[in-house]
Amino acid sequence: MFAVDHKDLTLSFNEFHDLSGKDLPQHGEYCLLELKTGDYTAGGWHPSEKGNAAAGQFIRGTADTVMSEEVERWHSLDRYDLSESLEEEGVGWINLGPEKEGCHSVQFDGFKLIAGRKYPKDEQFCLLIMKDGSLAAGRWNKWRGEAGGAFIYSSALASHSWNKVWAWTPLSIDQFFAMELEREGEKKREKKLNRNPSANPELFRYGTDINVYYEKALEKLREEFSWATLPMMKKRTPIWQIAPLHGKYVFGQISKNYYDDSDIVTPWTEGATADEFVDFLCRYTHDTVEKANPEEKFRFGTDIRVYLDKAFDHVKKDYRWLDKKMLGNSWQYDIRKVDGDFEFVRKYRDEGEYSVFDVESAERFIECVESDYQSVALQANPIVASYEPSFGHISLHGWNLERYIFYKLKSGDYKVSVTAGDRTTGGSREFFITSHCFEAKTYEEFLDRYLEIVPDYSFGLGKKELLPNQDLKKFLGY
User: Fold this and answer.
1) pTM of the model
2) CA angle in degrees (0–180, nearest 5) for 139-182-68
3) Mean pLDDT throughout 174-203?
């Protein structure tokens, strides 16, 4: 991109300033910092609101700051554009600020091109030459699951994307990078230890195949639950596995590290022998197997139409306009054998494959289907009018009530939609107002029944707010 050879390039920083009340960066200015330890890092200046003008912090990222009392000198990175120098062939030395006798200077070289896929190590804080010729700095954060990454340089994960950077060189090791180096070292030591793990003969007297232990637990469970199977037991997740840890085999549960997708093994610690682990597996899976009784789960047989018809007939009582044709674009259900056991399965619309829909009883399955049918019915009934009662600030268990709207539907029925949220997330729920509510002779009696469906302690508005509202009373037909 630039004409200079990055391998021969040295940047000399010569215009350092002591951190004092008379010589401070501009608010937010990004600076190269010499620390009192002699290390070098960088950060954006944010002065304290207290009396001392030189008090403040240099922000490097979220929860990543350098306090002013740690800094010996600062040198601006924002005030330079190296474009002209970098476009000249043969340039190997660039001065940042005048090189005077007795001035404090520091040089950085060893630059690597980001275009060559030579990325820093995770958490490494680096000096950057950007593609527009400006200078910057940031902590390398590799993108998960894809090539590239970003250099985080301020709070709220503000970052320079890798494709905006021309070249980089590392600054000093700080606590975060040191922790990452230690973690990487620990991973390498762990990998070396686990190449030939040992097995405690008392703990693994039946070998290192986890299925043997599940099968022994299954034999015991069948004394109480004749229907027990291995697939039933393994519905209790996370399942147990045999894995190496610190050079020894352990019974453990394995999860993934969010940051690097490596395995995290959580070992079993409730006993010291194989038979104790088998007894533990019995306890661990007991409730799951107990609730998987096929006689209860499929008490109406294995024809899915029986369950769907029961759900449809029940929903139809209130949602009078519901038609079976409306159900074609929603969840599709079936009963199929999975790993030798009958299971309720479902897929959404035109998805290719069914997945297991794990419920413990026929009644619970029917309830779930009813909820789906109710949602389909409300979506299929057009809105013809709406009314939104006014309300002040209402806090709901840490969330704030944002919207509360009554809707009249084409069929003449009503529903209400409630939305609540906080600064980062939120959600909405719809409730059908059943005919039972409208059988009330007075508006007050209507509210008593309505608030059993949409209670004020959960959704914000109660009788105190709704009873005096004459417009709402009229909208609902009272």
Assistant:
1) 0.64
2) 45
3) 94
